[in-house]
Please model this.
Amino acid sequence: MNPPRALTVAVVGATGVVGQEFLRILEERAFPVKRLVALASKRSVGRHVTFAGEEVAVEDLDETDFGGVDVAFFSAGGDRSLEHAPRAAQAGALVVDNSSAFRMDPDVPLVVPQVNAHRALEHRGIIANPNCSTILLVMALAPLHRHVPVRRVVCSTYQAVSGSGAEALAELEAQGEASREGRPLEARVYPQPIHANVIPFVQAFGEDAITLEEWKLVHETRRLLEEPDFAVTATCVRVPVLRAHSEAVNVEFERPVSPAEVRRWLAEAPGVRVVDDPDTLAFPTPRDAEGGDDVLVGRIRRDPSRDTAVDLFLAGDQVRKGAALNAVEIAEAVLVSPVGSPPGRDPIP
Amino acid sequence: MNPPRALTVAVVGATGVVGQEFLRILEERAFPVKRLVALASKRSVGRHVTFAGEEVAVEDLDETDFGGVDVAFFSAGGDRSLEHAPRAAQAGALVVDNSSAFRMDPDVPLVVPQVNAHRALEHRGIIANPNCSTILLVMALAPLHRHVPVRRVVCSTYQAVSGSGAEALAELEAQGEASREGRPLEARVYPQPIHANVIPFVQAFGEDAITLEEWKLVHETRRLLEEPDFAVTATCVRVPVLRAHSEAVNVEFERPVSPAEVRRWLAEAPGVRVVDDPDTLAFPTPRDAEGGDDVLVGRIRRDPSRDTAVDLFLAGDQVRKGAALNAVEIAEAVLVSPVGSPPGRDPIP
Model:
């Protein structure tokens, strides 16, 4: 491995929930940043973000030409990615895009480094960061599927409001206050109040009355596992939790598998932490996952309905492993520590 | 049907969340109450409850002999039911017991009137009210299973804190306040704070690291459907919602079934209301189920992983249909309007 060279890093959507987390994670991991470029829409110009103890002025995405940018993390919505990611890549930046714009594009790798890091090296300038719920699911699923083929997955999510951005976090807080004061709860981000509620509807409806979020879990899981017909169904539900997603997952294998085997395979999986002990009431919760890097997996147990299936429960920080952390890990896999890249290959695209 | 005669009704646990709901429901439904007896433990003696506009003094359960009581609704925990329900039945009362004490007792019918009202008439003095999550699940499942045999169910719950009683409701509120004021959150009822969290652990762990709540869903569903080997698995999760439970349910049938068929069968099912329209963003939520009698079912859609399966989402008031309402309906089925009872049979046990 060559020593990492210092890089010019752009964060697009730098003032958002995920953008802010990009800055924290780049610092925490000592990502080799020579210069940080903070980009956002016109209305954020004039604001500053903090990186490595310094104030960085937010620049206008529309006016930026990306010349000299080595890596650009995009987290400003699909429309902005569609418009600006190709020209950033054209200008020579490695784009890691957190939107859904390119995730099903066959020319754009979809990557969770612990699952398919090798695909990152096939990029043509853009790499897609998967949907948050899908990243968490696949972190637990891929290690199992490598040991014994998984035949079918039934997944129910418990998704934090951070997935809908800062406005949703503010709405949840305002609803809590209104409820305490006996005022009516106002809902703008979601079709109903999320305070003291759960909403079985994430994002928008798609084909067959399945939501887009549920379809992402189906299609992106298939792509990440490289199993075009992988059988997975999901119900995606928003819950009044701040920033970690949880998932109840039923995993049906090709043959009977014991909970002890599943526990062992997950204990060996990078980025996964098994939290699973009935005696000490240890199980994953979004509170415990918040702020951490690992996907917590527990409640691993036999399925009384089928001897080839196992039930489990997982939780992971939606803003970190579900978004910014996974994207930074993708960039690291390509630029800093090119796992599995051929010797002598230039790690900069 | 004979005109209902006026009855002496005892509510055991009258000061609790479910006990209070019993009083409301008996009033709302004009249950033929001649005299209401409010019973609780010694420490509640001296308190009063309100019924039909009158104050009723709480009496000591230990000192009550149940002579002259026609029906006794028990909701004071399994230990009190085990101790006092048999002697209430002995004294001639019909006991409808909301605890888990007798639910798997082959001499005690386990009843959801919309599902197996006929079993209520086989009672020997005690009828068991099922677990709250199980009642809601079976309300949706039984009508489907009658049309096309269901082969397997995977259920993930989103359970309100009311299921843990008034103390849990107070704890959730106190944690909300502590969070707002930046104080540490204290958890006593649950092993972790439930505010802004979900906890994949309800009640206690049982065999095979499956919780007692999850086992109830398995065993009580089998009993209610009269299918001793019915294949069902569940993950039971507590969420920061006040009093309606929700469930994401994957239902696998013997043969392919369309979402339209499922929607039609559920629309015809008593006690079920289909709330399911992507165009108007209509789907069940615990907020909408709160205070109502119906189990709301929606998000009815094909399962992309299996053509014999359908996904759905349901919500129902845990304190009402999940507890007090179902118990009152059981009593009505036996005492007031004996559905399916042979003519001439004395409806009073």
Summary: Chain A has a mean pLDDT of 95. The longest helix of chain A spans residues 320-336. Residues 302 and 310 of chain A are 5 Å apart (CA to CA). The radius of gyration of chain A is 20 Å.
